[in-house]
Amino acid sequence: MAENSTHDIRADEPADIGRRVLRLRTERGLTQKQLAEPAYTAAYISTLESGRVRPSETALRYLAGRLGTTVDELATGRPPHLATVLRMRLTDARRTLATGAAEDAAALFGALRDEAASFALVAEEFGALLGLGDCALETGDLTDARDLFAEAEALLAHEPLPRRVPALRGRATAHLLAGELRYACYLLETAVDELNAAGLHDPDALLLLYTASIAPYMDMGAHARAAHAAELALALAPQVDNPALVAGMHRGVARTLIAEGRIADADASLAKAQELYQQLHIRTELAHCHWMRGYVHAQDGNLKKAESELRTARDMLASKRATLFTVQVEVELADVLRRRGKAAEAEELLRPLLAPTALGAERGAVHAGGAHRLLGLIAEDRGDTEAAEEHYCAALSLLERTGAAGDLADLCRLLGDLLRRTGRTEAALDAYRTGLGHRAAPGTTTLGPAPAAPPPWPRP
């Protein structure tokens, strides 16, 4: 979505403006009379430089022309072309985030935020906050990410909602990664409804929101809603010029196609996304495509290809020091390794992931639950039912707070089967009942009505 960069001139105090006029006049070797004539008097310039009068906009224009500067610099102290320079630096910082380490990009975005804020360049400060939020997502600092995106939203509180959507989507993503699926859906659905109710049919904003809603819908078992969001996103794509948004849409749509068993279509959608990300040199998102293709191959039973794609994704993310995404890929890689008969290697990969600094209740709860589930399966395979039960119960406590219906139902089945085999029939029945309670019918959640589709856009 294009970030407009309109800057209202918020003039400083008269004393600040006066000192600025005095400095610039002195630097240019002008007397007060030479600066003033023919439109003003030397006495007016003297009064202005002493801070006893606030110049009108007409006077500011006149003085700026005489002093060879801009009205903006004279009124606010902003150097000429500062906004343009900061936007160029934002592009460089984005490139660093796309191809390098998040920590390096965060240092660039942080300096940009401070400079933009000091000169009240709101659009540039907003862009820097978005960048810092994305860096925090990559490093797994989800609380920081939420705070940064919320700060960006607040900065544009009086702007139209489409301008704030990238920050809102970032905040929803942080909640999703923390395992707060319902709240992520709530944020995204509320924004869609607000856009439609206000008649703000911005294709870029809506595409971003519909695409972002696919993952939490899928994790919650709301497959019909996910498919509908994908359908709406596909319909919007021809009206969007931003290739990164279109690539993200193709990646999101692939997940709904996998759920429908359309493996070839899912792979084709991922290939489109991958091609766009390669053209844009966005390494993190390209790694996500390899990650998703690994998942596609695993669903299709081609475990060798799945392992290869997941290892590629892990190596790419690790090279960028994208710690949270790296460990999430490792959980899925461990699942493939276990299915390929490499249980020891899978267990060796999983155990470090359960450290508080890797995964946990506040940092990737869904994947932390997945890691415990896999360790439970590995323990069962070697006959250690006590360890298996401990891992299943740990996974259950993590997943129950997320609302990940499909994962919860599968886990309760595994736990129930284990309890039944060890002679605890009543406990097994309780586990099965818990799983049935979490298994929502396709397309239903406890979220309330799905957001309405936007009305058709007029054709040009």
UniProtKB/TrEMBL annotation:
GO terms for molecular function: DNA binding. Pfam families: HTH_31. This is Transcriptional regulator. It comes from Streptomyces cinnamoneus (Streptoverticillium cinnamoneum). Residues 451-460 have a biased composition (Pro residues). Residues 21-74 form the HTH cro/C1-type domain. Residues 439-450 have a biased composition (Low complexity). Residues 438-460 are annotated as: Disordered. Gene3D superfamilies: lambda repressor-like DNA-binding domains, Tetratricopeptide repeat domain.
